[in-house]
Write a structure and sequence with these properties.
single chain; mainly alpha; 14 helices; 4% strand
Length: 318
């Protein structure tokens, strides 16, 4: 609002023209918050919106314009010359007349706050059937619906991408950003039935992890714990074994409690003479050491899986 009153430029608003005959002529692709702020400041909220006009509050207080005080004032309290300047201001509009939903997604990602796209946003901007399947998993599976992981900057899409990479085989590939993007692009050429089979494998493993996440004392929010647990669940499924959620959750709670206890001083795990020594301390040491080496490398992922399996004995349905 201050920029408009001072005659400064504000970012362009992008509107997408909708097919004729609908309730609205346009939808806002980028700039919806700016539009709402302008309407609310004018005291003209949008239809069905109960927002009210607001004063120009800021810290430090906004400086006067041509001797007219604007700090703490609503639009109706401004000097008439400033009101006229505000209502005469031209907002730049970009009208989109032809586009697919995928093209709109790419445009939106590139417009956000002028920020460079993070790796997950780059993958989400890549068109193709694999991207659509990953996005569907991220937006519809109950794990993501119930997780405390906040979906900021396509974070759920990122975790879902790691889930699909895990389904291709733990320890067979690195899981760095470029590896995940290459995998997504390679999978675009796979037959639909292969992609659906891969999605089914991911979905079944996430079903188990979702139940575990609802009952554990340690919510699954860290990316590599998410990957490692999914890989373990998938390994049981690959062997034709169903996972007992109660037993798996108890094993995870015991592992995670001990991991947190020693993650900052893992070398103590090598001292078998200490009072709280445990038969699985060497496995925990191997897990922590592999993670510290480079968590996204295939060798690290494979070592962590081998170590983790020692903590998860007898977790299948009998």
């Amino acid at each position: 609002m201050d920029s408009i009153l001072r005659g400064m430029d504000i970012p362009k608003i992008y509107l997408r023209r909708l097919p004729p005959g609908g309730l609205f002529d346009y939808e806002a692709v980028d700039g919806q918050q700016r539009l709402r702020a302008i309407w609310d400041f004018l005291g003209q909220p949008s239809q069905n919106d109960k927002s009210q006009a607001f004063p120009l509050k800021a810290r430090p207080a906004l400086a006067p314009i041509n001797g007219h005080v604007i700090a703490e004032k609503s639009f109706s309290e401004l000097d008439t010359t400033l009101q006229n300047q505000f209502t005469a201001f031209n907002v730049g509009i970009g009208e989109i007349t032809e586009s697919t939903n995928d093209e709109i997604t790419v445009l939106f990602a590139r417009l956000q706050m002028g920020m460079p796209l993070n790796p997950a946003e780059l993958r989400n901007a890549d068109l193709g059937q694999m991207r659509n399947i990953i996005q569907l998993m991220a937006t519809s599976h109950e794990f993501f619906a119930n997780t405390p992981i906040r979906d900021e900057r396509t974070k759920h899409f990122d975790y879902a991408s790691f889930a699909f990479a895990t389904a291709t085989g733990v320890g067979k590939m690195d899981m760095k950003a470029q590896n995940l993007r290459d995998l997504q692009q390679e999978c675009n050429s796979l037959p639909s039935e292969d992609l659906l089979q891969l999605a089914s494998k991911v979905g079944e493993a996430l079903n188990v992890l979702s139940e575990v996440d609802q009952h554990t004392a340690y919510r699954v929010t860290r990316k590599w714990i998410f990957v490692d647990l999914l890989g373990l669940i998938m390994s049981y499924h690959d062997e034709g074994k169903a996972v007992d959620v109660t037993r798996f959750t108890a094993a995870y709670d015991a592992f995670e409690a001990r991991r947190r206890m020693y993650t900052s001083h893992m070398d103590q795990l090598l001292n078998s003479e200490r009072e709280d020594a445990h038969p699985l301390d060497r496995a925990l040491y191997d897990y922590l050491a592999a993670f510290r080496t480079e968590g996204a490398k295939a060798a690290s992922l494979a070592t962590r899986q081998q170590a983790l399996k020692r903590f998860f004995k007898n977790v299948e349905v009998k």
